[in-house]
From TrEMBL:
Protein name: LysR family glycine cleavage system transcriptional activator
Record's keyword annotation contains Disulfide bond: no
One function term, GO molecular function aspect: sequence-specific DNA binding
Domain HTH lysR-type, chain residue ranges per copy: 6-63
Amino acid sequence: MNRALPPLAAVRVFEAAARLGSFTQAGAELGMTQAAVSYQIKVLEERVGAPLFVREARRVRLTPIGQRLALDCTSALDLIATGFASARGTAADVLTLTVIPTFATRWLARHLGEFQMAHPDLAVRSSISRDMVDLERSEFDVAIRAGTGDWPGLTSHPLIEAVFTPMVSPDYLARFGPLSSPRDIVSLPRIDIDDPWWQLWFERAGVDYALPEIPRGSRMGGQDLEAIAAMAGHGAALLTPFFYRDEMERGQLIQPFDILCPAGRAYRVVYPTARRNVPKIRAFRDWILGHFPQAASPQPPSHGGAR
């Protein structure tokens, strides 16, 4: 829709002058000189094609055309102000998060209620996704990601190091017997067998192993699904022990070896550096870092995924 709008700066000046009955007072309210106010009024009068004010010795008064226009301008500016106030209030009251599935299901879902109780004025909306969302151009305020933290324009704080090791179910051990060495797993069922992390873990364990040249089997694509498959006895899965402590304590998952392989990355809380002092972002950052006191200093924005 093509709107033939006058300059909005001139409309704002006209509305103030009409409301106050003075170019001088309008200039004082808007931080402008009287000459600048007179110029903006002249711009509108040329656009309308008729005088909007009668200039008198010490005051100005609206012409009949000016009176009609003043009512509409005041209503329009009030409507805009109300809309912005509503949007600003909504933005301030809602914290939007984008979270990778493993962290969302294995940690955040269990603890987010604590944050909401501590901040009852904030509504939290979470989206679970493996996609790398552009925080500077999306509606999301904060992300939980896995990576090295070198993301342009973003500040990130490491929460936990991403390490992985094979885990199996009791049924798995009952079927295939005890695992006496890492080499035993090579010939046994494994979930996501062509995942490059298997090669990294076997190398860490001192086992010669090469990934299959041809992809074999299905891919789960994430720890959250791999853990479910492992607990069902379908194979050994590479998991981060931090997320599965409860299942290990209940005996649903077993970590047969103490060998942990670092992924060279960490699970991180991330937000735009330019918005680091927004109260809701600062509140969430401080709360989640309080749960991970071992977290290191923030990763500064770079100028240049884990499972």
